From TrEMBL:
It is found in: Periplasm. This is Plastocyanin/azurin family copper-binding protein. Residues 35-114 form the Blue (type 1) copper domain. SUPFAM superfamilies: Cupredoxins. The keyword Signal applies. Residues 1-19 form the signal peptide. Keywords: Copper, Electron transport, Metal-binding, Periplasm, Signal, Transport. Its cofactor is Cu cation. It holds the Pfam family Copper-bind. Gene3D superfamilies: Cupredoxins - blue copper proteins. InterPro entries: Amicyanin/Pseudoazurin, BlueCu_1, BlueCu_1_BS, Copper_blue_Plastocyanin, Cupredoxin. It comes from Teichococcus globiformis.
Length: 150
């Protein structure tokens, strides 16, 4: 215990911070809101640059993939296969919209906001993104609005 406390104090004094634990996003057949089906929980995540998100297939039959028309330019691709657990580290600031490919039309989307991001700009892009199902578009707009207020 004494060693851990000493290490924490030394890291704080040198300006080095211990790595933050990954935020866990669960993939669900029934969302956290009554009557909601096929959802990520939480659907809005904020992490600092260099922060990590752990995707957990709580219920089977889901994956995590980018929404290509809204993915930040030059950002590395993301692909968490069906029924797989994965931790992804985000090294660049931006808004990273993800989807469960078979359930996007049912609104199974989420936003990973990394560092400071212009949520107004993202909301405008999402409102006119080609090929996005209405339920997914509406949810992304609501998530962007919530992220812009926090």
């Amino acid at each position: 215990m004494m060693i851990r406390t000493t290490l924490t104090v030394l890291l704080a004094m040198t300006g080095m911070a211990a790595a933050e634990p990954a935020v866990t996003v669960r993939e669900l057949n029934r969302g956290p809101v009554a009557g909601e089906t096929f959802a990520y929980d939480p659907a809005l995540v904020r992490v600092p640059v260099g922060g990590s998100v752990r995707f957990e297939p709580t219920d089977k039959g889901h994956n995590v993939a980018p929404i290509p028309s809204l993915w930040p330019a030059g950002a590395p691709p993301l692909n968490v296969p069906f029924n797989s657990d994965a931790t992804v580290t985000f090294e660049r600031p931006g808004v990273y919209p993800v989807q469960c490919t078979p359930h996007t039309g049912l609104g199974m989307v989420a936003l990973i906001v990394v560092g400071d991001a212009d949520m107004t700009e993202f909301a405008a892009k999402a409102a006119s993104a080609p090929g996005l199902a209405p339920k997914a578009r509406a949810k992304l707009g609501a998530l962007a609005g919530a992220a812009g207020q926090s």
